């Protein structure tokens, strides 16, 4: 079995819902029971990529046969859930910040340890106080002149941190390989807050939309036809793992197929007809990445994310 990390960038609000709500929001996003972290189910991701694969033979080898023939063999690819890595939060300076926390970075680190070649992963900084926000440097985009950072109605003391800068560069190279402008933009807005602060932002920094249903004849609102939907904001970044197991297709064919399917944005989650769920996917790490590969001939440059060889 070979593994790679998979990063997801939401280009529009992302609604990966549960289909029911227990509070004021009728259609909330899916969250982990223990942590409250939003996630996109791996089954949803696999279904979209399977549908995007138009070659029936490749689709059967990589993703497995249709349900009527599911007894024949399993698929060669498995997806973990895509879990929150960076949450975009409105900032008084710099428009918005990409916010994360030590716990979220630890989970990302744990995933990265399953991937060959990730041997230079940065250390994780711990904000000493709930009022601190660790940033990449003194002059980052989100820091005010008095070394304060303000998100929504929360203010923090900016603490420059080399480990935070290293994490921003590490993540940026994998989400935006070859695009130095976006790598710099992420580094300028990247920050780490206390886990308790992150828990509060997870409840208050998501987008909530009010929706109505109109009578077709009168164009007035039907009775009891007002509901609220939650979505992760555009620019949210999720991460997870994708595994390749040799069943009918080897790891090289699996990852090459996925790379081809991920060249253009895909629609994930629900509410596609109102513009939700346009996302870009990017794989990173791992070793061999060419069809029918030979060890040492075709490998990925882990520092840049570029594939070399035949």
From TrEMBL:
Keywords, alphabetical: Antiviral defense
One biological process GO term for this chain?
defense response to virus
Superkingdom of this protein's organism: Bacteria
Tell me the ranges covered by the CRISPR type III-associated protein domain, including all copies. 9-279
Matches recorded under PANTHER family: CRISPR SYSTEM CMR SUBUNIT CMR4
Q: What is this protein called?
A: CRISPR type III-associated protein domain-containing protein
